[in-house]
């Protein structure tokens, strides 16, 4: 399972992890020892003044993404891999993204499931009509809308190819529910406050099947709609079976795309696509605050 930037560069045959940046000296030294990194710096400015790098990863906490990207605008880089949610600032991220585009530097955004080959296959199956017409989507995630919720929104947009419209938002305690319109198909987003359980599941109901993305994106379950063996005249989803996705190698695919990128090409997840999902998640957050007020 490749779930970190460091492991992705270590595993990828065309990259070598050579430096890290962390203002905490103890954490920086621990990272350097664990990953056998030669160089360590306390700031981005220090790193850029000392060495020349081909690729930079921006994987600090939310709130540091855009300031770091702004510093990297003056660096002579070939590519950038940045964590979502781009500080939850779609407008600011889009402006920086346009600057990188003008410089011819591709920026991949780690909405990881967009790089999963299994999700690309599923997207193609939907477009080809394998499951029939979309009837509804229901997604369950944690209460952090901008971090886990933006993943959910982004995945729905990627799979269906349409940007939903926010219809209504409700809050019950720390739980948030949002109803979105995907061109006539309802998209129910449920952010439940359950510290004891990390959950990311999406159910897509079609006219001919129900497909569920389960196990935090590690499994896909296809359930064809068949005549019920128990209820006469009724049609129900069969039990189906779990099929493993390729989520665990998705970050390697992201590095493949960055390595192969040429001017005019699009990455599976870039600043342009990420800003659409982040702006929508921002809208849900604003309506949640208004509803609470």
Name its key features.
293 residues; single chain; 9 helices; alpha/beta; 9-stranded mixed sheet; Dihydrodipicolinate Reductase, domain 2
Give the structure's gist in a few sentences.
It is built from 9 helices and 14 strands.
Strand and helix layout:
Elements: H1 5-11, E1 19-21, H2 25-35, E2 39-41, H3 44-50, E3 55-58, H4 65-72, E4 79-82, H5 90-103, E5 107-109, H6 117-127, E6 134-141, H7 145-160, E7 165-172, E8 175-182, E9 185-191, E10 201-206, E11 209-214, E12 219-227, E13 235-237, E14 241-244, H8 250-260, H9 271-292
Parallel strand pairs: 1-2, 3-4, 4-5, 6-9
Antiparallel strand pairs: 6-10, 7-8, 8-9, 10-11, 11-12, 12-13, 12-14
Task: Kindly describe this structure.
The structure is a single chain. The protein is α/β, with parallel strands linked by helices and 293 residues long. The chain folds into 2 domains: 126 residues, Rossmann fold, CATH 3.40.50.720; 147 residues, Dihydrodipicolinate Reductase, domain 2 (2-Layer Sandwich). Helices cover 37% and strands 26% of the residues. Strands 6, 7, 8, 9, 10, 11, 12, 13 and 14 form a 9-stranded mixed β-sheet that branches. Helix 5 packs antiparallel against helix 9 and helix 7 packs across helix 9. The model has no long low-confidence stretch (mean pLDDT 95).
